[in-house]
Amino acid sequence: MTNGLPRPLRIGRIDYTNVWPVFHHFDPLSLRYPAEMVKEMPAVLNRKLKAGEIDMAAISSFAFGLSSDSYYLLPNLSVSALGSVQSILLFLKSPLEKVIHGKIALTTTSATSVNLLKIIMEKFYGGKPEYEDAEPALEQMLANADAALLIGDHAIRASWENHGYRVLDLGEIWNVWTGHWMSFALWGVRREAADANPEAVASIYEGLLESKRLGSRDLTPLVSKAMRQIGGTASYWRSYFQNLNHDFGPDQKAGLLLYFRYAHELGLMDRQVDLSEWPVPLRR
Predict the structure, then answer these.
(1) Is the pTM of the predicted complex or chain greater than 0.85?
(2) Around Cβ 29, how many Cβ atoms within 10 Å?
């Protein structure tokens, strides 16, 4: 037992650039209570948090909605955009008129993006395409499909290629049709972990907020890291990070609740979503 905890709290981190502004300056070793980082794709973190294998995480908004009665929402943390997001992209081999009734290959790494695509195709465009899961490799995805959905760094890299496909940004389409923000990921904590370890969760939460503050204040380290690890130009990455928002206030909440409503109307969710915020402990 360390600092009163039977084991370190486990924190899930999406292994994508879109969370770097929150995690870049976050150091679990500097916290008052022991914590461990678990880096995975969104779909894996979704499963681990639901199964209790991790205690808190940045997870897909859709996955949070499906299990919202088991989680608290960590306030003022998200991956959101008002318009273009540049990393959730639909690549069209066929005209859109064919795509909406054709076949779309889906990346399996994010439930939020997949169901956002279904809302766009079926509710906005009046289509009913066939969907098939695929590994995130653009040419293989499009071998037998009319369009392919890629997210995260796979989408970014594919957007740089001279492939000639039409590319639709799902964040931009959502904003054009609704006028709202879209929140792609939220930070959640399992309720039993938060109730049993409020001071440890508070230490992690404060560390995340401070890391977010430092990350948003100076994008230079994030831009340099992205160029080293992924490629691209400084101007691209600066624009990319500036398009993202990692707050979660009333405007982001309104957009996400509309997304959940549409998902429920299409039968993608069978329950009402409870966005109960974690009751942040008062400092002594």
Answers:
(1) yes
(2) 6
